[in-house]
């Protein structure tokens, strides 16, 4: 497996990976309506957001199996792994690569219920519970921090 910089040509495959991960991996922690809202993407907003971040993809034999992006202030925005490739160290490698690339005094993220244990294992600590709203749905997540 190899980590590479995200390129605009990766957009469709990455969005499909994220949607699949949300639908399959997070389904136990969120309602069907929440999953539907979370998995909806506006390609233009996505493009704008990713262009403002350090974004990485994990490749395995011509297939993208992981994606992560981080703002240059240390805010980790997205972290998703293809459901068939979970628990193979992909998320950890992507986070470590971003933290090495983006030098910050602290790293933060809004972790989903599903991702909270992963981030705790990476040294992130919950500062507070958060209720996010997207497309008319409310989501419980956790604002987490890790000192740089």
Pick out its properties.
single chain, 148 residues, alpha+beta, Aminopeptidase, seven-stranded mixed β-sheet, 5 helices
Task: Give a short overview.
With 148 residues, the chain is of the alpha+beta class. The protein is 33% helix and 38% strand.
Fold and architecture overview:
By secondary structure, the chain is α+β, with helices and mostly antiparallel strands. It has a single domain, classed as Aminopeptidase. It is 33% helix and 38% strand. The chain is built from five helices and seven strands, in the order E-H-H-H-E-E-E-H-E-H-E-E. It has helices spanning 11-25, 32-38, 43-51, 90-101, 116-121; strands spanning 2-5, 53-60, 63-71, 75-81, 106-112, 125-134, 137-147. Strand 3 (63-71) and strand 4 form a beta hairpin. The longest helix has 15 residues, at 11-25. The mean pLDDT is 92.
What's the total count of β strands? 7
What are the low-pLDDT stretches, counting only 5+ consecutive residues below 50? none
Structural class: alpha+beta
Biggest sheet record:
7 strands, mixed
CATH fold call: Aminopeptidase
The arrangement of helices and strands along the chain is EHHHEEEHEHEE
Strand order of the largest sheet: 1-2-3-4-5-7-6
| Number of helical segments with 4 or more residues | 5
Spatial gap, N to C terminus: 26 Å
Strand content: 35-45%
What is the CATH superfamily label? Answer: Gcn5-related N-acetyltransferase (GNAT)
3D shape = globular
**Mean pLDDT rating:** 92
What's the level 1 CATH class?
Alpha Beta
How many individual domains?
Answer: 1
Over the alpha carbons, how many angstroms does the gyration radius reach?
14 Å
State the helicity in percent bands: 25-40%
- What would you say the CATH architecture is? 3-Layer(aba) Sandwich
């Amino acid at each position: 497996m190899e980590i590479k910089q995200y390129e605009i040509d990766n957009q469709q495959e990455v969005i499909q990976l994220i949607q699949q991960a949300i639908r399959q991996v997070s389904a136990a922690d969120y309602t069907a309506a929440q999953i539907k809202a979370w998995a909806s993407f506006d390609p233009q907003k996505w493009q704008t957001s990713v262009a403002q971040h350090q974004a990485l993809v994990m490749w395995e034999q011509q297939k993208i199996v992981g994606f992560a992006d981080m703002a240059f202030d240390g805010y980790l925005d997205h972290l998703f792994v293809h459901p068939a490739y979970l628990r193979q160290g992909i998320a950890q490698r992507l986070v470590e690569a971003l933290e090495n690339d983006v030098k910050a005094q602290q790293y933060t993220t809004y972790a989903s219920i599903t991702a909270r244990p992963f981030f705790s294992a990476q040294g992130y600590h919950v500062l507070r519970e958060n209720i996010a709203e997207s497309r008319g749905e409310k989501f419980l997540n956790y604002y987490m921090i890790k000192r740089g």
